[in-house]
Design brief:
The complex is a heterotrimer of chains A (341), B (275) and C (288). Chain A is mainly α. Chain A is built from 14 helices and no strands. The longest helix of chain A is centred in the first third of the chain and has 36 residues, at 59-94. In chain B, a hairpin with a 6-residue loop joins strand 11 and strand 12 (261-268). In chain B, 42% of the residues are buried. Chain B has 275 residues and is an alpha/beta fold. Chain B contains nine helices and 13 strands. In chain B, helix 4 packs across helix 5. Chain B starts with 14 loop residues before the first strand and ends with a strand. Chain B has a single domain, classed as Rossmann fold (3-Layer(aba) Sandwich), CATH 3.40.50. With 288 residues, chain C is of the alpha/beta class. Chain C has two domains: 12-146, Rossmann fold (3-Layer(aba) Sandwich); 163-287, Rossmann fold. Chain C has a four-stranded parallel sheet with strand order 2-1-5-6, with helices on both faces. A four-stranded parallel sheet of chain C has the order 10-7-11-12, with helices on both faces. A two-stranded antiparallel ribbon of chain C has the order 3-4. The longest helix of chain C has 23 residues, at 139-161. The chains are: A mainly alpha (341), B alpha/beta (275), C alpha/beta (288). Chain A binds chain C through residues 27-29, 59-60, 63-64, 67-69, 118, 122-124, 177, 180-186, 189-190, 194, 196-197, 308, 311-316, and chain C through 76-77, 173, 175-178, 199, 201-204, 207-213, 215-216, 227, 229-234, 236, 244-245, 247.
Chain lengths: 341, 275, 288
């Protein structure tokens, strides 16, 4: 809040673009910006066309960029942005600074769904992603049902979410316990989050849901802001508080479920990035949302880079990297500010 | 945007609020029992009574947060429940008892919320709006704190911001639930003077009987969910009512500085006299 | 004060006394009641004729067939310590890489007679057989098996020793993509076939790797082990990844092979069957 807002916005956008480029360049193979640029804009995708073009990049590298890196980093960006804006909205709408996208046990539900898809429906009828998505949505429905008629009371909602989270987590652990070690290792790695297997078609659902969600958040931003000032006050301004809250919860749940189904459980991002954004630009919602997209996206991209390059040739689960970097960040922020976040 | 003083668009003699035997219960318990009263345009009405009498509950019925379980409540000659919340919000502004805590929006953003009932979601802000907001902030004397975070203000300043928000809402009825709780004496008087100048119908609940006597045209005295007295200050603030309802002894005479009553409480040895 | 310090140090060192007892137990008793907490140890005991002395084992002990009838007292998640004690064994064989270290410590602290097993290469099998022979008094049978194993092992490895090295990627698991690193049993098998593990410089024995790094290292052969425990989905997924990466030498030349993982992943004489198939598969690259 010490700097001009437009300066900050541009800076964060530049950061995002830089992060996207950096993530494309860094990896098991270190490419140059030139090669990336050429591949994206100059080289013909269809290498067998026989048409001579001025493309000097090895076809293998081109394939790496298009088939492995681009889908992966776009997924990382979408995940970072999606989890961050979801966290921001949930924190506003529940007036709880500790709210995050996994409030409703979505991560546990998705894990349960994934586990069932792999170990019980093992003939491949149900893909892991579909299982995880169903599980995530199931957990939301379960949470709403548990909260019952009091679903519109924030505290009841939060408690219900915690209960669902624990319950489904217990079932998941149980199934993992009885699986063979290979399946167990697959599931555990999945639960810790990974962008590694992202393909272009995997990006569709997240991109659509996050875009729609973002637009809706922007449309309703004045109402959501008013809810932050108290339910009763918002009511007197003519805002349908309960319906709005429920709608926002559902949108956030859908986005989160879709993301978790694709990439597993990645923590910290949805909780901390909104706080960091607010620290930089204040509490105006559309400013916070924009900053969440740029900072959340950049953060996730760098996390992905670290996960792929910290140990040569090896890949770390993303969730571990976010937790490590995240807790450090959180700690530093707490130290530098006096007051509670 | 029209100026703060609202134009009378209702007939002079019709009531803004008309309540006929309204009741409200919660958890099987009757909080408001068969209340009948009328509030006319531009009246400055004070709701007074001991704790638990049902003052806040009554106000909530008026602005629609509580649903009455019996009786009829009309607002501007139409039954209350036929209005949508948004329609009510365009005409009734409320300053609630507790301003939000842990809330760090800028003051001017908070005041800007008052425009919500009048704006569509997709509308962009206009410079005219900013002028309205700034005017309202000036009226509550917080101009130098326009860009401060809400939670850095004192309790009284927060309350004044909420009043500014209500001003921006440009209502015809202003309902305030114990608005003077957090204010020092100077600001208590200033806020009420400001509200009085607004020339809208004002309904507010108060604890301070002297303030009530100074500002209100009319008082409604509640006790245990029933209306015990309803009329001018002179009619309601009697020694009888002081003793029976407030259970305190006092002396009522002419206030030396304004035209209303003055109430002086009588307690010796720091102990309330046994009635 | 000195006495207290010595006593304190003594107490701390006490548990470590048991560690050295692992391989060479002081008692010269012949073991008659054995609990083998590793499937390969079960197999080895049967090989030297001591199968009937096994009173309990863990899940996955499925060879020979008779082993299926042995009562189970544990699985990948842990050992039922109480039952182990209840069965009053003369000898408990624990597997450093396969049993939980907490369980092993517990058994140690209960004073159970332990033998520790953790083979890293095929030549370790002979060592194990020798140990088991001694402990069961069946040295003669053990030596016979050792001789057979070593003979066949030499046959196989000699064949390929002088041939060219084949860069190989061993896909231990597909999701997450896991390979093998230095000091792993499987890498020693690859070395026996004179193949070079492309991840021989990895940081851990079972590294999770990226497709990119496989692409870059461009192996000539890709080995994918298939297990009897795999479900249909897993079986197809394992090979599916590589279909679209014809840039890799192994894929282009058709050297992506699925082999019987059960044989390779066990530290017993049967591994020689697996080794033979593995080396022959890898050799196809040379003969191309």
């Amino acid at each position: 809040m010490k700097f001009k807002y437009s300066f900050i916005t541009i800076f964060s956008l530049i950061l995002l673009i830089f992060s996207l480029l950096a993530a494309t360049v860094i990896g098991s193979v270190d490419l140059t910006f030139g090669q990336v640029f050429e591949t994206l804009f100059i080289c013909n995708e269809n290498q067998n066309s026989g048409i001579q073009n001025s493309c000097s990049v090895d076809p293998v590298y081109q394939k790496i960029i298009w088939e492995i890196r681009l889908p992966r980093i776009l997924m990382a960006f979408l995940t970072g942005a999606g989890l961050s804006i979801t966290g921001a909205i949930l924190q506003s709408v529940t007036r709880n600074p500790l709210a995050d996208p996994y409030l409703f046990g979505i991560s546990s539900g998705a894990a349960l769904g994934a586990v069932l898809a792999i170990s019980v429906f093992s003939s491949g009828i149900i893909s892991v992603t579909f299982g995880a998505l169903s599980g995530g949505i199931f957990s939301v429905i379960l949470m709403l049902t548990l909260a019952g008629r009091a679903v519109l009371q924030v505290e009841r909602l939060l408690l219900s979410g915690v209960a669902v989270s624990f319950m489904l987590g217990a079932f998941t652990s149980l199934i993992i316990y009885y699986s063979d070690p290979d399946t167990a290792s697959t599931l555990l790695f999945w639960m810790m989050g990974s962008f590694s297997n992202s393909q272009w078609q995997d990006l569709l659902l997240p991109a659509i849901s996050i875009t729609i969600g973002f637009i809706l958040f922007l449309i309703y931003r004045s109402w959501i802001g008013a809810i932050q000032a108290g339910d009763e006050g918002a009511f007197t301004l003519g805002i349908p508080v309960n319906q709005l809250r429920l709608m926002m919860l559902i949108i956030c749940s859908v986005i989160t479920a879709i993301l978790v189904a694709q990439v597993g459980g990645i923590g910290f991002v949805g909780l901390m990035i909104p706080h960091i954004s607010r620290y930089i630009v204040g509490s105006t919602l559309h400013k916070v949302l924009f900053m969440c997209v740029t900072i959340g996206g950049s953060f996730m991209l760098w996390v992905d880079v670290v996960a792929h390059s910290l140990i040569p040739d090896q890949v770390l689960p993303v969730g571990i990297v976010t937790a490590a970097i995240g807790s450090l960040f959180f700690f530093l922020i707490l130290k530098s500010r006096g007051r509670a976040l | 945007m029209s100026s703060i003083g609202s134009s009378l668009n209702q007939q002079h003699s019709s009531a803004v609020f008309a309540a006929d035997k309204i009741c409200w219960l919660v958890d099987e318990q009757l909080i408001l029992d068969c209340l009948t009263f009328e509030i006319k345009a531009q009246e400055f009405v004070g709701i007074i009574g001991p704790n638990g009498a049902g003052k806040s509950s009554l106000l909530r019925c008026l602005y629609g947060l509580n649903e009455i379980c019996a009786g009829e409540l009309t607002f501007q000659n139409k039954p209350s429940h036929t209005y949508t919340r948004r329609e009510l919000a365009k005409q009734i502004a409320v300053v609630v008892q507790e301003p939000p805590t842990h809330f760090d929006m800028k003051v001017s953003d908070v005041v800007a919320m008052g425009l919500i009932p009048h704006k569509s979601l997709l509308a962009f802000s206009s410079p005219q709006e900013q002028i309205t907001i700034d005017n309202a902030i000036e009226m509550v004397e917080l101009s130098e704190k326009k860009n401060a975070a809400f939670n850095t203000l004192s309790g009284g300043e927060k309350q004044r911001v909420m009043v500014a928000r209500a001003i921006v809402q440009n209502p015809q009825v202003l309902i305030l639930d114990e608005p003077t709780n957090h204010l020092d004496i100077q600001h208590q008087i200033e806020v009420l003077q400001l509200v009085k100048r607004m020339q809208v119908t004002v309904i507010l609940s108060l604890h301070d009987l002297n303030i009530a006597a100074a500002f209100c045209d009319r008082l409604i005295l509640l006790d245990k969910g029933k209306i015990v007295a309803d009329g001018s200050c002179d009619q309601v603030l009697t020694q009888q009512n002081l003793k029976n309802i407030f259970r305190i002894d006092g002396q009522i005479d002419q206030h030396p500085f304004h035209s209303g009553r003055r109430i002086t409480f009588n307690f010796t040895d720091g102990k309330v006299n046994e009635i | 004060m000195k006495k207290i310090v010595i006593l304190f140090i003594g107490l701390i060192l006490l548990p470590f006394c048991h560690l050295s007892q692992g391989k060479d137990d002081g008692e010269n008793k012949i073991a008659q009641r054995i609990i083998a907490l590793a499937p390969h140890s079960v197999e080895l005991l049967y090989a030297i004729g001591a199968g009937d002395r096994i009173v309990a084992t863990t899940e996955y002990a499925d060879y020979p067939k008779a082993a299926l009838k042995i009562p189970r007292v544990g699985n990948a998640n842990g050992i039922q310590i109480e039952r182990v004690i209840e069965l009053k064994p003369d000898l408990v064989i624990v597997w450093q890489g396969g049993n939980k270290s907490a369980d092993i410590q517990k058994l140690k602290s209960l004073g159970v007679n332990l033998l520790s097993t953790q083979p890293f290469k095929i030549s370790d099998i002979s060592k194990e057989l020798r140990q088991l022979g001694k402990l069961t008094g069946l040295e003669q049978q053990a030596n016979k098996v050792i001789e057979e194993v070593e003979k066949r092992y030499k046959e196989i490895t000699n064949k390929y020793k002088s041939r060219s090295k084949v860069k190989t990627f061993y896909q231990l698991w597909h999701d997450p993509l896991t390979s093998i690193g230095p000091d792993s049993w499987l890498e020693s098998l690859l070395n026996d076939c004179n193949a070079e593990n492309i991840f021989k410089d990895a940081f851990s024995s079972y590294p999770v790797v990226s497709i990119e790094s496989v692409l870059v290292k461009n192996p000539q052969a890709i080995i994918i082990p298939h297990h009897s425990g795999d479900n249909d989905l897993q079986a197809t997924e394992k090979t599916r990844i590589w279909k679209k990466w014809s840039e890799i030498s192994a894929v282009k030349n058709g050297h992506v092979s699925v082999i019987n993982g059960d044989l390779l992943h066990r530290f017993t004489p049967r591994v020689l069957d697996g080794l033979q198939t593995l080396c022959e598969d890898i050799d196809k690259v040379r003969r191309k």
